[in-house]
Write a structure and sequence with these properties.
Elements lengths: L14 H22 L3 H6 L1 E9 L3 E4 H12 L2 E16 L2 E14 L4 E16 L2 E18 L22 H5 L1 H4 L5
Parallel strand pairs: 1-6
Antiparallel strand pairs: 1-2, 3-4, 4-5, 5-6
């Protein structure tokens, strides 16, 4: 903060600001993990009870409605990978705003196409009881790509390598006991 005001301009960063920005970045990447592993209880825990999610025109509503809607949209994909790139946060006490750049890969359920979204989460956050959560989350698309997937001959790169799963069967839950303990059975 410069003169006590949030700023994107270079400034001396206090330890509290660093900790808050790290917590907000952790919130963003945890959201990606929850979506890609389809851990909807985890996703719900990232939102305040009075939060709003705006994935318009596909969805607009509160956190409970958003989590209830997710299975219908996630069923369209055999795999997703949400990747965070740049994160910018402005913090003003117990509220913050953020622009989180992302690439979201989606493989269709039938395995024939990839849809790649490039965009940004435009977020508002609130810190309550010392914990940052989403207060308002919206998705802005900058561009999209769609392409056919060529059929694979032979075992491909996956031969012998564990394949990710959008479920509790993902290797991270099999190989990482601390992660497994976080996932409801």
């Amino acid at each position: 903060m410069s003169n006590g005001q949030p700023t994107l301009r270079p400034h001396a960063i206090a330890v509290d600001e660093m900790l808050d920005k790290f917590a907000l970045q952790q919130l963003a990447v945890t959201y990606c993990h929850g979506i890609d592993r389809q851990d909807l209880q985890l996703v719900r825990s990232l939102y305040h009870d009075d939060a709003i999610d705006d994935h318009s025109p596909m969805f607009y509503g509160n956190a409970d409605e958003y989590v209830a809607w997710l299975p219908s949209i996630l069923s369209m994909w055999s795999a997703t990978a949400h990747i965070i790139h740049n994160t910018l946060f402005l913090i003003d006490g117990d509220q913050a705003e953020g622009e989180v750049t992302l690439t979201a890969y989606h493989r269709t359920a039938d395995g024939t196409r990839e849809v790649i979204a490039h965009g940004r989460y435009i977020d508002q956050y609130r810190k309550r009881d010392g914990v940052w959560r989403f207060y308002r989350r919206s998705l802005t698309l900058d561009w999209m790509e769609e392409r056919q997937i060529a059929p694979q001959e032979g075992p491909g790169i996956a031969g012998g390598v564990a394949m990710g799963q959008p479920s509790a069967l993902d290797p991270c839950y099999q190989r990482l006991p601390l992660f497994a303990a976080q996932r409801p059975s």
